[in-house]
């Protein structure tokens, strides 16, 4: 079973037009995203989004993409 920690999470500042704060998304899970007023809040919120995304995919019988392997930093 895959864990949310296995997925790469990208967190970026949101534009002022989008209300500011931070946006978090998971490239391996299309449409899986969340936001927060702070970087930490966005990181926390996206964990729930990953769990919900995987649960919904399982309920619909859809495949769950494997996390992209991370490259070691030299």
Describe the 3D structure.
This protein is α+β, with helices and mostly antiparallel strands. Helices cover 30% and strands 16% of the residues. It is built from 1 helix and 3 strands. It has a 3-stranded antiparallel beta sheet with strand order 1-2-3, covered by helices on one side. A hairpin with an 8-residue loop joins strand 1 and strand 2. It starts with 9 loop residues before the first strand and ends in a 14-residue tail after the last helix. The mean pLDDT is 90.
What's this entry about, in short?
The chain is an alpha+beta fold.
Query: How many individual helices?
Result: 1
Low-confidence stretches: none
How many beta strands in the DSSP annotation? 3
| SS content category | alpha+beta
Helix and strand run: EEEH
Q: Helical residue percent?
A: 25-40%
What gross morphology would you assign?
globular
Overall pLDDT: 90
Strand order of the largest sheet: 1-2-3
Distance between the termini: 29 Å
Radius of gyration: 13 Å
The major pleated sheet works out as: 3 strands, antiparallel
The fraction of residues in strands falls at 15-25%
Descriptive terms for the model:
globular, 74 residues
Topology:
Layout: E1 10-13, E2 22-25, E3 33-36, H1 39-60
Antiparallel strand pairs: 1-2, 2-3
